[in-house]
Amino acid sequence: MDERAREDRDWLAAYRGLSPEQVRRRARDEGRPLRVLHPGSVVTMDFRPDRLNLHLDERGEPLDVTAG
Protein backbone atom coordinates (compact mmCIF):
# COMPACT_ATOMS: atom_id res chain seq x y z
CA MET A 1 0.00 0.00 0.00
CA ASP A 2 1.45 3.38 -0.93
CA GLU A 3 1.85 6.10 1.70
CA ARG A 4 -0.98 8.26 0.35
CA ALA A 5 -3.46 5.38 0.51
CA ARG A 6 -2.39 4.66 4.09
CA GLU A 7 -2.82 8.33 5.07
CA ASP A 8 -6.29 8.37 3.49
CA ARG A 9 -7.33 5.30 5.43
CA ASP A 10 -5.86 6.68 8.66
CA TRP A 11 -7.69 10.00 8.56
CA LEU A 12 -11.00 8.36 7.70
CA ALA A 13 -10.66 5.87 10.56
CA ALA A 14 -10.61 8.75 13.05
CA TYR A 15 -14.20 9.63 12.05
CA ARG A 16 -15.72 6.16 12.28
CA GLY A 17 -17.90 5.53 15.31
CA LEU A 18 -18.53 9.23 15.98
CA SER A 19 -21.97 10.82 16.18
CA PRO A 20 -22.96 13.14 13.31
CA GLU A 21 -22.37 16.16 15.58
CA GLN A 22 -18.93 14.88 16.56
CA VAL A 23 -18.08 14.35 12.89
CA ARG A 24 -19.19 17.89 12.04
CA ARG A 25 -17.21 19.39 14.92
CA ARG A 26 -14.05 17.43 14.16
CA ALA A 27 -14.20 18.24 10.44
CA ARG A 28 -14.69 21.93 11.23
CA ASP A 29 -11.81 21.94 13.74
CA GLU A 30 -9.52 20.23 11.21
CA GLY A 31 -10.60 22.50 8.35
CA ARG A 32 -11.79 19.51 6.37
CA PRO A 33 -14.58 19.98 3.80
CA LEU A 34 -17.65 17.99 4.82
CA ARG A 35 -20.55 16.75 2.72
CA VAL A 36 -23.52 15.24 4.56
CA LEU A 37 -25.41 12.71 2.45
CA HIS A 38 -28.95 11.65 3.29
CA PRO A 39 -30.74 8.77 1.51
CA GLY A 40 -31.59 9.89 -2.02
CA SER A 41 -29.28 12.93 -1.89
CA VAL A 42 -28.25 14.35 -5.23
CA VAL A 43 -24.48 14.80 -5.29
CA THR A 44 -21.90 16.07 -7.70
CA MET A 45 -19.44 13.55 -9.08
CA ASP A 46 -16.33 15.66 -8.53
CA PHE A 47 -13.83 13.74 -6.43
CA ARG A 48 -12.00 15.63 -3.71
CA PRO A 49 -9.70 13.33 -1.74
CA ASP A 50 -9.63 15.74 1.21
CA ARG A 51 -13.43 15.96 1.52
CA LEU A 52 -15.27 13.88 4.09
CA ASN A 53 -18.60 12.37 3.07
CA LEU A 54 -20.87 11.54 6.00
CA HIS A 55 -23.54 9.04 4.92
CA LEU A 56 -26.67 9.08 7.11
CA ASP A 57 -29.68 6.77 7.24
CA GLU A 58 -33.34 7.80 7.29
CA ARG A 59 -33.14 8.54 11.02
CA GLY A 60 -30.02 10.68 10.69
CA GLU A 61 -27.75 7.98 12.12
CA PRO A 62 -24.31 7.56 10.52
CA LEU A 63 -23.89 4.66 8.10
CA ASP A 64 -20.39 5.34 6.82
CA VAL A 65 -17.72 7.94 6.18
CA THR A 66 -15.85 8.08 2.90
CA ALA A 67 -13.43 10.39 1.12
CA GLY A 68 -14.45 12.22 -1.98
How would you summarize this macromolecular structure in one to three sentences?
It comes from Kineococcus radiotolerans. This protein is α+β, with helices and mostly antiparallel strands and 68 residues long.
Kindly describe this structure.
The protein has 68 residues and is of the alpha+beta class. The protein has one domain: Trypsin Inhibitor V, Chain A (2-Layer Sandwich), CATH 3.30.10. Helices cover 32% and strands 22% of the residues. It has a 3-stranded mixed β-sheet with strand order 1-2-3, with helices on one face. β2 (52-56) and β3 (62-67) form a beta hairpin. The relative contact order is 0.21.
* CATH hierarchy, class: Alpha Beta
How much β-strand is present in the residues?
15-25%
- Reading the helices and strands in chain order gives HHEEE
Helix content: 25-40%
CATH topology: Trypsin Inhibitor V, Chain A
Task: Assign the CATH superfamily.
Answer: Trypsin Inhibitor V, subunit A
Indicate the structural class: alpha+beta
Number of helical stretches of at least 4 residues: 2
Number of beta strands: 3
Global geometry: globular
Measured distance between first and last alpha carbons: 19 Å
Largest pleated sheet: 3 strands, mixed
Comma- or semicolon-separated keywords:
disordered N terminus; 2 helices; 68 residues; single chain; 22% strand; alpha+beta; Trypsin Inhibitor V, Chain A
List the helices and strands and how they pair.
Blueprint: H1 3-13, H2 20-30, E1 34-37, E2 52-56, E3 62-67
